[in-house]
Amino acid sequence: MSINTTPDDFYSKLTPFYHIIYPDWDKSIEKQALNLDAIIRSHFGHRISSILDVSCGIGTQSLGLARLGYQVTASDLSSDAIDRAREEAKKRELGITFSIADMRKAFIHHGKQFDLIISCDNSVPHLLSDDDILTALKQFHKCIHTNGGCLISVRDYDKEDLTGQKIKTYGTRDEKGIRYFIFQVWDFHDLIYDLSMYFIEDRGSAECITHVMRTKYYAIGTSKLIKLMQEAGFRDIKRIDSQFFQPVLIGVKK
What we know:
Layout: H1 7-14, H2 25-44, E1 50-53, H3 60-67, E2 71-76, H4 79-91, E3 97-100, H5 106-110, E4 114-119, H6 130-142, E5 144-153, E6 165-175, E7 178-189, E8 192-202, E9 209-218, H7 222-232, E10 234-240, E11 248-253
Parallel strand pairs: 1-2, 1-4, 2-3, 4-5
Antiparallel strand pairs: 5-11, 6-7, 7-8, 8-9, 10-11
Helix pairs in contact: 2-3, 6-7
């Protein structure tokens, strides 16, 4: 079976369920923001105030960073995810500017520069070729001030077996009297793989309801991604481990 859907389709279907991927989404928002803030401060000092999040989803990173006092602008390919992110920001009384945009057109869309651009939680590998990733990275480069930075977090594909079929389980979550069992299935076709994400909804009856979202990823290694960042114009690129839930790549615009 080959999957033929877009990331927009995937995230539109995932949007209502996204928060239950986490055992406690609010705690994850806070923890990720504190982790990112520590990375930002250690590499850029206190010169970062404005941040552009080009793959904000429902706001997991943007909400927490705005709460810490950063001036956050956020965009995403999925209109449904942006609608929910706006609602979540409003609940928390956070002044974040949200819009719908493809990261490959980040500067074309936003048309101004920021101190830092971020793309977290393995969003860049939704782009399925080196050319598409390079296009996005060049747009990222245009979106930041001189001496500003780019921060990307990705899965560590160098540690994965990139063959055959893999099952990744998230466990169970209970919400509003419903139990969900959550897992992913990865089907590899060389470095491009199909991902199916399942939410099995158990309401206590004899049958369960299955929700499934499908997309594709490019299992790009961080060494290749670093080379593309260099080609896009970033310098002083570093891989940071053990400070975030994924490896983080940071580059500077000189």
